[in-house]
Amino acid sequence: MSTEKTTIPAEFQIKAPIHQNTYLVNGELKEWKGNTTEVFSTISETSTYKPTLLGSIPDMGEPEALGALDAALEAYDKGKGVWPTMHVKDRIESMEKFVKQMETKREEIVKLLMWEIGKSLPDSRKEFDRTVEYIYDTIEDYKQLDRDSAKFQKNQGVYAHVKRGPLGVVLCLGPYNYPLNETFALLIPAIIMGNTAIFKPAKHGVLLITPLLEAFQNSFPKGVINVLFGRGRAVAAPIMQTGKVDVLALIGNSKSANALQNQHPKSNRLRLVLGLEAKNPAIVLPDADLNLTIEEVLAGTTSFNGQRCTALKVVYLHEAIQENFLKQFAEKIDALKFGNPWEEGVKLTPLPEPGKPAYIQELIDDALAKGAKIINKKGGQHFDNYIWPAVLYPVTRDMRVYQEEQFGPVIPVLSFDDIEQPLDDMAESNYGQQVSLFGKDVYTLSPLIDTLVNLVCRVNLNSSCQRGPDVYPFTGRKDSAQATLSVHDALRSFSIRTFVAFKDNELNNETVQQLLEAKLSNFVSTDYIL
Ligand code: G3H
Protein backbone atom coordinates (compact mmCIF):
# COMPACT_ATOMS: atom_id res chain seq x y z
CA MET A 1 0.00 0.00 0.00
CA SER A 2 1.37 3.37 -0.96
CA THR A 3 0.93 6.11 1.55
CA GLU A 4 3.08 8.40 -0.55
CA LYS A 5 1.75 11.96 -0.56
CA THR A 6 0.06 12.95 -3.79
CA THR A 7 1.29 16.12 -5.40
CA ILE A 8 -0.86 18.74 -3.76
CA PRO A 9 0.42 22.28 -4.38
CA ALA A 10 2.01 23.61 -1.17
CA GLU A 11 -0.49 26.45 -0.85
CA PHE A 12 -3.40 24.00 -0.71
CA GLN A 13 -1.88 21.42 1.62
CA ILE A 14 -3.33 20.88 5.06
CA LYS A 15 -0.40 21.79 7.26
CA ALA A 16 -1.98 20.92 10.59
CA PRO A 17 -5.50 19.85 11.60
CA ILE A 18 -7.72 22.55 13.08
CA HIS A 19 -8.93 21.45 16.50
CA GLN A 20 -11.62 23.99 17.20
CA ASN A 21 -11.91 24.16 20.98
CA THR A 22 -13.80 27.38 21.45
CA TYR A 23 -17.30 28.52 20.61
CA LEU A 24 -18.87 31.96 20.66
CA VAL A 25 -21.56 32.67 23.24
CA ASN A 26 -22.47 35.99 24.82
CA GLY A 27 -19.49 37.72 23.29
CA GLU A 28 -17.07 35.24 24.79
CA LEU A 29 -14.98 32.63 23.02
CA LYS A 30 -15.60 29.90 25.55
CA GLU A 31 -13.30 26.97 25.88
CA TRP A 32 -14.81 23.58 25.11
CA LYS A 33 -13.65 20.70 27.25
CA GLY A 34 -16.26 18.10 26.31
CA ASN A 35 -16.47 15.48 23.55
CA THR A 36 -15.38 16.38 20.07
CA THR A 37 -16.20 15.11 16.58
CA GLU A 38 -13.49 14.61 14.02
CA VAL A 39 -13.89 16.34 10.67
CA PHE A 40 -12.72 14.39 7.64
CA SER A 41 -12.39 15.29 4.00
CA THR A 42 -13.23 12.66 1.39
CA ILE A 43 -10.18 13.96 -0.50
CA SER A 44 -7.08 11.83 -0.02
CA GLU A 45 -3.62 13.24 0.68
CA THR A 46 -1.96 9.97 -0.18
CA SER A 47 -1.88 7.96 -3.39
CA THR A 48 -3.55 5.04 -1.62
CA TYR A 49 -6.98 6.38 -0.87
CA LYS A 50 -7.60 7.52 2.70
CA PRO A 51 -9.94 10.28 3.91
CA THR A 52 -7.97 13.21 5.34
CA LEU A 53 -8.39 14.35 8.91
CA LEU A 54 -9.01 18.10 8.81
CA GLY A 55 -9.58 18.66 12.50
CA SER A 56 -12.30 18.42 15.09
CA ILE A 57 -15.24 20.39 16.44
CA PRO A 58 -17.04 20.46 19.78
CA ASP A 59 -19.91 17.99 20.08
CA MET A 60 -22.28 20.20 22.02
CA GLY A 61 -25.58 19.43 23.64
CA GLU A 62 -28.59 20.95 25.32
CA PRO A 63 -26.87 22.98 28.09
CA GLU A 64 -24.66 24.87 25.63
CA ALA A 65 -27.55 25.29 23.21
CA LEU A 66 -29.72 26.82 25.91
CA GLY A 67 -26.81 28.99 27.01
CA ALA A 68 -26.58 30.40 23.50
CA LEU A 69 -30.33 30.97 23.42
CA ASP A 70 -30.16 32.86 26.72
CA ALA A 71 -27.37 35.03 25.34
CA ALA A 72 -29.40 35.85 22.21
CA LEU A 73 -32.51 36.56 24.31
CA GLU A 74 -30.55 38.79 26.64
CA ALA A 75 -28.98 40.71 23.75
CA TYR A 76 -32.45 41.25 22.31
CA ASP A 77 -33.72 42.01 25.83
CA LYS A 78 -37.40 42.07 24.86
CA GLY A 79 -36.65 44.71 22.23
CA LYS A 80 -34.76 46.94 24.68
CA GLY A 81 -31.29 45.59 23.85
CA VAL A 82 -28.46 47.74 22.57
CA TRP A 83 -28.53 46.04 19.17
CA PRO A 84 -32.25 46.11 18.32
CA THR A 85 -32.54 49.76 19.43
CA MET A 86 -29.29 50.90 17.87
CA HIS A 87 -29.28 53.57 15.16
CA VAL A 88 -29.14 52.04 11.69
CA LYS A 89 -25.86 53.75 10.88
CA ASP A 90 -24.21 52.18 13.94
CA ARG A 91 -25.40 48.70 13.01
CA ILE A 92 -24.01 49.30 9.55
CA GLU A 93 -20.65 50.30 11.06
CA SER A 94 -20.49 47.01 12.97
CA MET A 95 -21.23 45.10 9.79
CA GLU A 96 -18.54 47.01 7.89
CA LYS A 97 -16.05 46.22 10.61
CA PHE A 98 -16.95 42.53 10.28
CA VAL A 99 -16.74 42.33 6.50
CA LYS A 100 -13.37 44.08 6.39
CA GLN A 101 -11.93 41.44 8.71
CA MET A 102 -13.65 38.69 6.75
CA GLU A 103 -11.90 39.81 3.55
CA THR A 104 -8.53 39.11 5.15
CA LYS A 105 -9.51 35.44 5.64
CA ARG A 106 -10.13 34.69 1.96
CA GLU A 107 -7.27 32.24 1.38
CA GLU A 108 -7.91 30.26 4.55
CA ILE A 109 -11.62 29.95 3.88
CA VAL A 110 -11.24 29.12 0.18
CA LYS A 111 -8.81 26.32 1.07
CA LEU A 112 -11.22 24.89 3.63
CA LEU A 113 -14.11 25.12 1.14
CA MET A 114 -12.12 22.91 -1.22
CA TRP A 115 -11.17 20.34 1.42
CA GLU A 116 -14.42 20.25 3.33
CA ILE A 117 -16.93 20.14 0.50
CA GLY A 118 -14.82 19.42 -2.58
CA LYS A 119 -15.77 22.65 -4.37
CA SER A 120 -13.39 23.58 -7.21
CA LEU A 121 -10.92 26.42 -6.66
CA PRO A 122 -12.67 28.90 -9.00
CA ASP A 123 -16.07 28.07 -7.49
CA SER A 124 -14.73 28.30 -3.93
CA ARG A 125 -13.26 31.70 -4.70
CA LYS A 126 -16.54 32.70 -6.30
CA GLU A 127 -18.46 31.59 -3.20
CA PHE A 128 -16.23 33.71 -0.97
CA ASP A 129 -16.25 36.79 -3.20
CA ARG A 130 -19.97 36.55 -3.84
CA THR A 131 -20.58 36.47 -0.09
CA VAL A 132 -18.45 39.55 0.55
CA GLU A 133 -20.24 41.35 -2.27
CA TYR A 134 -23.56 40.22 -0.80
CA ILE A 135 -22.66 41.86 2.52
CA TYR A 136 -21.68 45.15 0.88
CA ASP A 137 -24.84 45.11 -1.26
CA THR A 138 -26.92 44.41 1.83
CA ILE A 139 -25.40 47.43 3.57
CA GLU A 140 -26.21 49.65 0.59
CA ASP A 141 -29.74 48.30 0.33
CA TYR A 142 -30.35 48.82 4.02
CA LYS A 143 -29.21 52.43 3.72
CA GLN A 144 -31.69 52.90 0.88
CA LEU A 145 -34.45 51.23 2.90
CA ASP A 146 -33.70 53.58 5.76
CA ARG A 147 -33.60 56.65 3.49
CA ASP A 148 -36.95 55.69 1.97
CA SER A 149 -38.52 55.61 5.42
CA ALA A 150 -36.96 58.83 6.73
CA LYS A 151 -40.30 60.64 6.40
CA PHE A 152 -43.82 61.05 7.73
CA GLN A 153 -47.02 60.39 5.86
CA LYS A 154 -50.49 61.62 6.67
CA ASN A 155 -53.81 59.91 6.01
CA GLN A 156 -57.22 60.79 7.39
CA GLY A 157 -55.71 63.14 9.95
CA VAL A 158 -53.18 60.61 11.26
CA TYR A 159 -49.43 60.93 10.74
CA ALA A 160 -47.28 57.84 10.48
CA HIS A 161 -43.53 57.27 10.60
CA VAL A 162 -43.22 53.75 9.16
CA LYS A 163 -40.00 51.76 9.33
CA ARG A 164 -38.93 48.13 9.52
CA GLY A 165 -38.01 46.61 12.87
CA PRO A 166 -36.44 43.30 13.94
CA LEU A 167 -38.42 40.17 14.80
CA GLY A 168 -36.37 38.87 17.74
CA VAL A 169 -34.19 35.78 18.01
CA VAL A 170 -33.25 33.92 14.83
CA LEU A 171 -32.02 30.33 14.70
CA CYS A 172 -29.92 30.09 11.58
CA LEU A 173 -28.88 26.86 9.85
CA GLY A 174 -27.23 26.65 6.45
CA PRO A 175 -26.54 23.89 3.90
CA TYR A 176 -23.29 22.06 3.12
CA ASN A 177 -23.25 22.95 -0.58
CA TYR A 178 -22.88 26.68 0.12
CA PRO A 179 -21.74 26.61 3.74
CA LEU A 180 -20.53 30.18 3.61
CA ASN A 181 -22.70 31.92 1.05
CA GLU A 182 -26.15 30.57 1.81
CA THR A 183 -25.63 30.64 5.56
CA PHE A 184 -24.53 34.26 5.38
CA ALA A 185 -27.38 35.09 3.00
CA LEU A 186 -29.55 34.32 6.05
CA LEU A 187 -27.37 35.47 8.92
CA ILE A 188 -26.24 38.85 7.56
CA PRO A 189 -29.69 40.32 6.76
CA ALA A 190 -31.06 38.84 9.99
CA ILE A 191 -28.39 40.57 12.06
CA ILE A 192 -28.31 43.89 10.26
CA MET A 193 -32.06 44.33 10.77
CA GLY A 194 -31.52 44.23 14.54
CA ASN A 195 -32.30 40.60 15.34
CA THR A 196 -29.99 38.48 17.46
CA ALA A 197 -28.94 35.03 16.29
CA ILE A 198 -27.82 31.55 17.14
CA PHE A 199 -25.97 30.01 14.26
CA LYS A 200 -24.89 26.41 13.78
CA PRO A 201 -22.69 25.72 10.76
CA ALA A 202 -23.54 22.88 8.37
CA LYS A 203 -22.21 19.35 8.96
CA HIS A 204 -19.79 19.62 6.04
CA GLY A 205 -18.22 23.04 5.71
CA VAL A 206 -17.93 23.77 9.41
CA LEU A 207 -14.23 24.44 9.97
CA LEU A 208 -14.32 27.20 7.37
CA ILE A 209 -16.47 29.25 9.75
CA THR A 210 -13.85 29.09 12.52
CA PRO A 211 -11.53 31.79 11.08
CA LEU A 212 -14.45 34.23 11.47
CA LEU A 213 -15.26 33.71 15.14
CA GLU A 214 -13.03 36.51 16.37
CA ALA A 215 -14.41 38.92 13.79
CA PHE A 216 -17.94 38.06 14.95
CA GLN A 217 -16.83 38.58 18.52
CA ASN A 218 -15.19 41.98 18.07
CA SER A 219 -17.65 43.47 15.55
CA PHE A 220 -20.99 43.01 17.30
CA PRO A 221 -22.24 43.60 20.86
CA LYS A 222 -22.18 40.51 23.07
CA GLY A 223 -24.88 37.94 22.43
CA VAL A 224 -25.84 39.28 18.99
CA ILE A 225 -24.20 36.33 17.22
CA ASN A 226 -23.74 33.04 19.02
CA VAL A 227 -22.04 30.17 17.23
CA LEU A 228 -22.61 26.56 18.25
CA PHE A 229 -21.11 23.31 16.97
CA GLY A 230 -22.59 19.85 17.00
CA ARG A 231 -25.47 17.90 15.52
CA GLY A 232 -28.67 19.71 14.64
CA ARG A 233 -30.73 17.27 16.64
CA ALA A 234 -28.64 17.86 19.75
CA VAL A 235 -28.44 21.64 19.66
CA ALA A 236 -31.22 23.00 17.45
CA ALA A 237 -34.04 20.84 18.82
CA PRO A 238 -33.75 21.94 22.48
CA ILE A 239 -33.63 25.58 21.37
CA MET A 240 -36.83 25.20 19.34
CA GLN A 241 -38.61 23.37 22.18
CA THR A 242 -38.38 26.44 24.42
CA GLY A 243 -40.71 28.32 22.08
CA LYS A 244 -38.46 31.36 22.41
CA VAL A 245 -37.20 31.45 18.84
CA ASP A 246 -38.95 34.00 16.64
CA VAL A 247 -37.52 32.99 13.27
CA LEU A 248 -36.27 29.66 11.95
CA ALA A 249 -33.96 30.46 9.03
CA LEU A 250 -32.87 27.31 7.28
CA ILE A 251 -31.58 26.39 3.87
CA GLY A 252 -31.46 22.65 3.47
CA ASN A 253 -33.73 19.74 3.69
CA SER A 254 -37.47 19.84 4.35
CA LYS A 255 -37.27 16.90 6.75
CA SER A 256 -35.00 18.85 9.09
CA ALA A 257 -37.09 22.00 8.64
CA ASN A 258 -40.33 20.14 9.45
CA ALA A 259 -38.80 18.35 12.42
CA LEU A 260 -37.54 21.63 13.86
CA GLN A 261 -40.62 23.72 13.26
CA ASN A 262 -42.77 21.00 14.81
CA GLN A 263 -40.77 21.24 18.04
CA HIS A 264 -41.78 24.88 18.50
CA PRO A 265 -44.78 25.02 20.85
CA LYS A 266 -46.10 28.38 19.57
CA SER A 267 -46.48 28.00 15.83
CA ASN A 268 -48.06 31.44 15.33
CA ARG A 269 -45.05 33.13 16.84
CA LEU A 270 -42.57 31.28 14.66
CA ARG A 271 -41.70 32.82 11.31
CA LEU A 272 -40.05 30.71 8.69
CA VAL A 273 -37.42 31.65 6.16
CA LEU A 274 -36.73 28.41 4.33
CA GLY A 275 -34.96 27.35 1.15
CA LEU A 276 -35.65 23.65 0.61
CA GLU A 277 -35.53 20.95 -2.07
CA ALA A 278 -36.22 21.39 -5.74
CA LYS A 279 -36.37 19.23 -8.83
CA ASN A 280 -35.89 21.88 -11.49
CA PRO A 281 -36.64 20.57 -14.99
CA ALA A 282 -35.06 21.47 -18.30
CA ILE A 283 -37.64 21.43 -21.10
CA VAL A 284 -36.08 21.24 -24.55
CA LEU A 285 -38.40 22.13 -27.45
CA PRO A 286 -37.85 20.87 -31.02
CA ASP A 287 -36.47 24.18 -32.31
CA ALA A 288 -33.97 24.68 -29.47
CA ASP A 289 -30.45 25.73 -30.44
CA LEU A 290 -28.73 22.40 -29.90
CA ASN A 291 -25.21 23.58 -29.06
CA LEU A 292 -26.30 26.29 -26.65
CA THR A 293 -28.85 23.97 -25.00
CA ILE A 294 -26.32 21.20 -24.48
CA GLU A 295 -23.86 23.62 -22.86
CA GLU A 296 -26.53 25.04 -20.55
CA VAL A 297 -27.94 21.63 -19.57
CA LEU A 298 -24.41 20.37 -19.00
CA ALA A 299 -23.66 23.24 -16.62
CA GLY A 300 -27.08 23.00 -15.00
CA THR A 301 -26.85 19.27 -14.29
CA THR A 302 -23.18 18.91 -13.40
CA SER A 303 -21.88 22.11 -11.82
CA PHE A 304 -20.74 21.27 -8.29
CA ASN A 305 -21.70 17.69 -9.17
CA GLY A 306 -25.40 18.53 -9.17
CA GLN A 307 -25.26 19.46 -5.47
CA ARG A 308 -27.16 22.70 -5.90
CA CYS A 309 -30.78 23.29 -5.02
CA THR A 310 -31.02 25.08 -8.37
CA ALA A 311 -29.39 22.23 -10.34
CA LEU A 312 -31.30 20.79 -13.29
CA LYS A 313 -32.49 17.52 -11.83
CA VAL A 314 -34.68 16.18 -14.64
CA VAL A 315 -34.39 16.76 -18.39
CA TYR A 316 -37.36 16.63 -20.79
CA LEU A 317 -36.42 16.31 -24.45
CA HIS A 318 -38.87 16.68 -27.30
CA GLU A 319 -38.88 13.48 -29.34
CA ALA A 320 -37.75 15.37 -32.44
CA ILE A 321 -34.51 16.46 -30.80
CA GLN A 322 -33.91 13.63 -28.35
CA GLU A 323 -31.54 11.43 -30.38
CA ASN A 324 -29.18 14.19 -31.49
CA PHE A 325 -29.19 15.79 -28.07
CA LEU A 326 -28.43 12.61 -26.14
CA LYS A 327 -25.56 11.52 -28.37
CA GLN A 328 -23.72 14.82 -28.08
CA PHE A 329 -24.65 15.35 -24.44
CA ALA A 330 -23.34 11.93 -23.40
CA GLU A 331 -20.00 12.64 -25.11
CA LYS A 332 -19.73 16.00 -23.37
CA ILE A 333 -20.44 14.47 -19.97
CA ASP A 334 -17.72 11.89 -20.46
CA ALA A 335 -15.26 14.56 -21.58
CA LEU A 336 -15.55 16.48 -18.29
CA LYS A 337 -12.48 16.42 -16.12
CA PHE A 338 -12.64 14.81 -12.69
CA GLY A 339 -10.04 15.64 -10.07
CA ASN A 340 -9.23 17.40 -6.85
CA PRO A 341 -10.65 20.92 -6.49
CA TRP A 342 -7.39 22.77 -7.09
CA GLU A 343 -6.59 20.96 -10.36
CA GLU A 344 -6.67 23.11 -13.48
CA GLY A 345 -9.87 22.82 -15.53
CA VAL A 346 -11.53 20.37 -13.17
CA LYS A 347 -15.33 20.19 -13.47
CA LEU A 348 -16.23 17.12 -11.41
CA THR A 349 -14.85 16.89 -7.87
CA PRO A 350 -15.00 14.53 -4.86
CA LEU A 351 -18.37 14.25 -3.12
CA PRO A 352 -18.21 15.42 0.50
CA GLU A 353 -20.77 12.90 1.78
CA PRO A 354 -19.11 9.48 2.04
CA GLY A 355 -22.42 7.70 1.45
CA LYS A 356 -23.38 9.66 -1.69
CA PRO A 357 -21.87 7.36 -4.37
CA ALA A 358 -23.76 4.39 -2.89
CA TYR A 359 -27.01 6.38 -2.84
CA ILE A 360 -26.59 7.45 -6.46
CA GLN A 361 -25.85 3.80 -7.34
CA GLU A 362 -29.16 2.81 -5.72
CA LEU A 363 -30.97 5.31 -7.94
CA ILE A 364 -29.19 3.96 -11.02
CA ASP A 365 -29.95 0.32 -10.11
CA ASP A 366 -33.61 1.12 -9.56
CA ALA A 367 -33.83 2.94 -12.91
CA LEU A 368 -32.06 0.14 -14.78
CA ALA A 369 -34.35 -2.44 -13.23
CA LYS A 370 -37.35 -0.45 -14.44
CA GLY A 371 -36.15 -0.15 -18.04
CA ALA A 372 -33.77 2.83 -18.28
CA LYS A 373 -30.32 2.61 -19.84
CA ILE A 374 -27.07 4.42 -19.11
CA ILE A 375 -26.43 6.45 -22.25
CA ASN A 376 -22.82 7.57 -21.61
CA LYS A 377 -19.86 5.18 -21.52
CA LYS A 378 -18.46 6.37 -18.19
CA GLY A 379 -21.86 6.71 -16.49
CA GLY A 380 -21.88 5.06 -13.05
CA GLN A 381 -18.12 4.44 -12.94
CA HIS A 382 -16.96 4.40 -9.31
CA PHE A 383 -13.98 6.17 -7.77
CA ASP A 384 -13.05 6.21 -4.07
CA ASN A 385 -15.01 9.38 -3.47
CA TYR A 386 -17.04 9.78 -6.66
CA ILE A 387 -19.45 8.21 -9.09
CA TRP A 388 -19.41 9.42 -12.70
CA PRO A 389 -22.67 11.13 -13.75
CA ALA A 390 -24.89 8.59 -15.48
CA VAL A 391 -27.26 9.90 -18.15
CA LEU A 392 -30.33 7.70 -17.68
CA TYR A 393 -32.88 7.29 -20.49
CA PRO A 394 -35.77 6.65 -20.83
CA VAL A 395 -36.76 7.54 -17.28
CA THR A 396 -40.30 6.86 -16.13
CA ARG A 397 -42.34 8.34 -13.33
CA ASP A 398 -42.17 5.22 -11.17
CA MET A 399 -38.38 5.45 -10.83
CA ARG A 400 -36.74 6.78 -7.69
CA VAL A 401 -34.44 9.01 -9.75
CA TYR A 402 -37.55 10.75 -11.10
CA GLN A 403 -39.19 11.09 -7.69
CA GLU A 404 -36.30 11.97 -5.38
CA GLU A 405 -34.10 15.05 -5.34
CA GLN A 406 -30.83 13.32 -6.19
CA PHE A 407 -28.57 16.24 -5.14
CA GLY A 408 -25.64 14.56 -6.84
CA PRO A 409 -24.23 13.32 -10.15
CA VAL A 410 -26.98 11.46 -12.01
CA ILE A 411 -29.10 12.84 -14.87
CA PRO A 412 -32.59 11.47 -15.52
CA VAL A 413 -33.92 12.14 -19.04
CA LEU A 414 -37.50 11.76 -20.31
CA SER A 415 -38.85 12.43 -23.77
CA PHE A 416 -42.19 13.99 -24.68
CA ASP A 417 -44.29 14.58 -27.77
CA ASP A 418 -46.92 16.71 -26.07
CA ILE A 419 -45.86 19.71 -23.94
CA GLU A 420 -48.74 18.93 -21.57
CA GLN A 421 -46.69 15.98 -20.27
CA PRO A 422 -43.89 17.98 -18.60
CA LEU A 423 -46.41 20.64 -17.56
CA ASP A 424 -48.59 18.03 -15.84
CA ASP A 425 -45.54 16.59 -14.12
CA MET A 426 -44.56 20.00 -12.82
CA ALA A 427 -48.07 20.67 -11.56
CA GLU A 428 -48.04 17.28 -9.86
CA SER A 429 -44.58 17.76 -8.30
CA ASN A 430 -44.05 18.72 -4.67
CA TYR A 431 -41.54 21.30 -5.81
CA GLY A 432 -41.79 24.61 -7.60
CA GLN A 433 -38.54 26.51 -7.66
CA GLN A 434 -37.37 27.14 -11.28
CA VAL A 435 -37.44 25.74 -14.80
CA SER A 436 -35.17 26.06 -17.85
CA LEU A 437 -37.01 26.38 -21.12
CA PHE A 438 -35.14 25.92 -24.40
CA GLY A 439 -36.67 27.02 -27.70
CA LYS A 440 -37.02 29.93 -30.12
CA ASP A 441 -40.52 30.10 -31.56
CA VAL A 442 -42.36 32.92 -29.78
CA TYR A 443 -45.78 31.46 -30.64
CA THR A 444 -44.85 28.31 -28.70
CA LEU A 445 -42.92 30.09 -25.98
CA SER A 446 -45.50 32.74 -25.09
CA PRO A 447 -48.28 30.54 -23.71
CA LEU A 448 -45.71 28.25 -22.13
CA ILE A 449 -44.03 31.08 -20.25
CA ASP A 450 -47.44 32.32 -19.09
CA THR A 451 -48.14 28.91 -17.56
CA LEU A 452 -44.66 28.17 -16.22
CA VAL A 453 -44.45 31.39 -14.21
CA ASN A 454 -47.45 30.08 -12.30
CA LEU A 455 -45.84 26.70 -11.60
CA VAL A 456 -42.42 27.92 -10.47
CA CYS A 457 -40.85 31.22 -9.46
CA ARG A 458 -38.25 31.72 -12.17
CA VAL A 459 -38.41 30.71 -15.83
CA ASN A 460 -34.92 30.64 -17.34
CA LEU A 461 -35.11 31.10 -21.07
CA ASN A 462 -32.38 29.22 -22.95
CA SER A 463 -30.34 29.37 -19.74
CA SER A 464 -29.69 26.94 -16.91
CA CYS A 465 -31.30 27.57 -13.53
CA GLN A 466 -29.44 29.57 -10.91
CA ARG A 467 -29.97 31.65 -7.84
CA GLY A 468 -27.92 34.67 -8.88
CA PRO A 469 -27.44 37.50 -9.45
CA ASP A 470 -28.30 37.85 -5.77
CA VAL A 471 -30.35 40.99 -6.32
CA TYR A 472 -33.04 38.85 -7.98
CA PRO A 473 -35.76 37.20 -5.90
CA PHE A 474 -34.87 33.66 -4.87
CA THR A 475 -37.87 31.66 -3.74
CA GLY A 476 -40.07 28.72 -4.63
CA ARG A 477 -43.61 27.40 -4.54
CA LYS A 478 -44.98 24.38 -2.68
CA ASP A 479 -42.31 22.51 -0.69
CA SER A 480 -39.37 24.38 -2.23
CA ALA A 481 -39.29 27.51 -0.09
CA GLN A 482 -40.96 29.79 2.36
CA ALA A 483 -40.29 33.56 2.18
CA THR A 484 -38.15 35.25 -0.46
CA LEU A 485 -34.44 35.91 -0.38
CA SER A 486 -32.44 38.43 -2.39
CA VAL A 487 -30.30 41.30 -1.21
CA HIS A 488 -33.45 43.40 -0.83
CA ASP A 489 -36.09 40.76 -0.02
CA ALA A 490 -34.03 39.19 2.75
CA LEU A 491 -34.06 42.49 4.64
CA ARG A 492 -37.84 42.34 4.45
CA SER A 493 -38.05 38.66 5.36
CA PHE A 494 -36.12 39.25 8.60
CA SER A 495 -38.07 42.30 9.71
CA ILE A 496 -41.56 43.62 10.17
CA ARG A 497 -43.13 46.99 9.47
CA THR A 498 -43.59 48.90 12.68
CA PHE A 499 -44.43 52.56 13.12
CA VAL A 500 -45.17 55.56 15.27
CA ALA A 501 -48.54 57.19 14.57
CA PHE A 502 -50.16 60.32 15.96
CA LYS A 503 -53.23 62.39 15.38
CA ASP A 504 -52.61 65.73 13.77
CA ASN A 505 -52.96 68.24 16.62
CA GLU A 506 -50.85 70.95 18.16
CA LEU A 507 -49.58 68.89 21.10
CA ASN A 508 -48.50 65.93 18.98
CA ASN A 509 -46.96 68.01 16.25
CA GLU A 510 -44.89 69.93 18.75
CA THR A 511 -43.82 66.76 20.60
CA VAL A 512 -42.74 65.06 17.41
CA GLN A 513 -40.91 68.17 16.29
CA GLN A 514 -39.00 68.09 19.59
CA LEU A 515 -38.37 64.35 19.26
CA LEU A 516 -36.77 64.99 15.88
CA GLU A 517 -34.70 67.92 17.08
CA ALA A 518 -33.50 66.18 20.23
CA LYS A 519 -32.15 63.30 18.11
CA LEU A 520 -32.48 61.02 21.12
CA SER A 521 -34.68 58.40 19.51
CA ASN A 522 -32.96 56.09 17.04
CA PHE A 523 -36.33 55.20 15.51
CA VAL A 524 -37.96 58.61 15.18
CA SER A 525 -35.47 60.16 12.83
CA THR A 526 -35.56 61.72 9.39
CA ASP A 527 -31.76 61.81 9.06
CA TYR A 528 -30.39 60.51 5.78
CA ILE A 529 -27.62 57.94 5.90
CA LEU A 530 -25.35 58.60 2.94
O1 G3H B 1 -28.22 25.29 -3.44
C1 G3H B 1 -28.90 26.21 -3.89
C2 G3H B 1 -28.27 27.50 -4.22
O2 G3H B 1 -29.07 28.57 -3.84
C3 G3H B 1 -27.96 27.60 -5.64
O3 G3H B 1 -27.35 28.77 -5.91
O4 G3H B 1 -27.71 28.79 -8.34
O5 G3H B 1 -26.00 30.21 -7.29
O6 G3H B 1 -25.67 27.75 -7.41
P1 G3H B 1 -26.63 28.89 -7.33
Residues in β-strands, percent: 15-25%
Strand order of the largest sheet: 15-18-19-14-13-21-22
Major sheet characteristics = 7 strands, mixed
Overall morphology: globular
Low-pLDDT parts are none
- How far the N terminus sits from the C terminus, by CA atoms, comes to 64 Å
Total number of beta strands: 25
**Bound small molecules, which ones?**
glyceraldehyde-3-phosphate
Q: What integer is the average pLDDT? A: 97
C-alpha Rg (nearest Å): 25 Å
Helical content class = 25-40%
- The secondary-structure class comes to alpha/beta
Q: How many alpha or pi helices?
A: 17
Please characterize this protein's 3D structure.
With 530 residues, the chain is an alpha/beta fold. Helix content is 38%, strand content 22%. The protein has a seven-stranded mixed β-sheet, sandwiched between helices. Strands 10-9-8-11-12-24 form a six-stranded mixed β-sheet, sandwiched between helices. Strand 18 (390-393), helix 13 and strand 19 form a beta-alpha-beta unit. Helix 4 packs across helix 5. The radius of gyration is 25 Å and the shape is globular. The mean pLDDT is 97.
Write a compact overview of the structure shown.
The protein has 530 residues and is of the alpha/beta class. Helix 4 (106-117) packs across helix 5 (121-148) and helix 8 (232-241) packs parallel to helix 9 (254-263). The radius of gyration is 25 Å and the shape is globular.
